[in-house]
Amino acid sequence: MGLVWTKELSVGNAIIDAEHSNLIDMINDVRHGIKARNCSAMQRAFEMLDNWLCEHFLYEEMLARAIKFPFCQHRLAQQHSLRELRHMRGELLGKGGIWSDGAANHFTQSLKNWAVNEHIIKLDMLMKPALQNYDYNFMPDYGHDEAAHNAGELQIP
Ligand SMILES: [Fe+2]
Fold first, then answer.
1. How much distance in Å is there from the Cα of 94 to the middle of ligand 1?
2. The domain containing residue 29 runs over which residues?
3. DSSP characters over 21-66
4. What is the mean pLDDT of the chain?
5. How many structural domains compose the chain?
6. Ligand 1 centroid vs 124 CA: distance in angstroms?
């Protein structure tokens, strides 16, 4: 069974929660490609996930600025986690679709851990206390946020 977003994973903001639910769906797509040993499907799913994550990270930064949450450490952690994900993608693609059931389990478990434990629970949950001072449906003002004008700066070597 695929991973499912539950309210225990809520960080206290409707848009971020919806995005995290989407994140979990995308992780499920990658996991499915791994289990099926379908390299092209897995690669497509990884690419979609990577592109989407860059947008997600920028949105989180914009939201953090709006609620005055200090984001410097958070940004470093995001960049580190993106490198980890890309490393995992490189390892899998290097194997060309040939891996044991044990390896498939290892990678699918690592992806779950990456998305749910590391990204949502350990990292984004840090914003929850600050977000709880705002309405659940709070949105930053896109038009006046510097981060919106810097979109595309999140290039991870
Ligand atoms: Fe997030």
1. 28
2. 13-131
3. HHHHHHHHHHHHHHHTT-HHHHHHHHHHHHHHHHHHHHHHHHHHHH
4. 92
5. 1
6. 6
